[in-house]
Design brief:
With 172 residues, the protein is mainly beta. 13% of the residues lie in helices and 35% in strands. The strands form two sheets. Strands 1, 2, 5, 6 and 7 form a five-stranded mixed β-sheet that branches. It has a four-stranded antiparallel β-sheet with strand order 4-3-8-9, with no helix packed on it. Strand 8 and strand 9 form a beta hairpin. The longest helix is centred in the N-terminal third of the chain and has 13 residues, at 12-24. The termini are far apart.
């Protein structure tokens, strides 16, 4: 009899855990340090999205050509209703030239793609050529990330981890 009573108290425990575990990882907030927030996100103020360091690779190998430099691609959104935002430069530990001057004006309520391979502009912001990094840190590898700080007139500094694009081809 005692065995049946104990079973009555223990039996629901696995069922309760099965109901709680699937929802334990659910959260409606996105990581604030993400370099790729995705489309359809609402922005207030100035944001940097879809940032990538795109190096030159040795043909047929997954090795970065350090002396060939890299392109920095990113998108800047100005969510302010009336004020123009100005990107004056960026700094990164991915290159010995720690500070890179950039002059980009982002009109109010628009997005500017810097180095994005898109077909055409979607709004008043348009698109611009990629920022060139003249050389890369020899420790940088595909799939790693580097800290980049974007310097804005209104928003101040926005610092984020920016991934190095992975190898375009793989050996078989």
């Amino acid at each position: 009899m005692q065995h049946t009573s104990l079973y009555r108290y223990i039996a629901p425990v696995p069922l309760a855990l099965a109901a709680v575990v699937p929802i334990a990882g659910c959260d409606d907030t996105s990581p604030s340090g993400s370099s790729n927030r995705g489309s359809g996100s609402l922005t207030e103020g100035t944001t940097v999205e879809n940032a990538f360091i795109v190096p030159s690779f040795l043909p047929g190998h997954c090795a970065i050509q350090l002396d060939a430099g890299a392109a920095m691609r990113f998108t800047v959104t100005n969510g302010h209703p009336a004020e123009v935002e100005h990107l004056s430069g960026l700094s990164t530990d991915a290159t010995p030239a720690a500070s890179i001057p950039v002059a980009v004006d982002i009109p109010p309520k628009s997005t500017v793609g810097v180095g994005q391979p898109s077909a055409g502009p979607e709004d008043a912001g348009g698109s611009l050529p990629a920022v060139r990094l003249s050389s890369l840190d020899p420790q940088l590898r595909p799939g790693m990330s580097a800290e980049v700080t974007f310097h804005f007139e209104r928003a101040g500094e926005i610092t984020m981890r920016v991934p190095v694009e992975a190898c375009p081809t793989q050996q078989r």
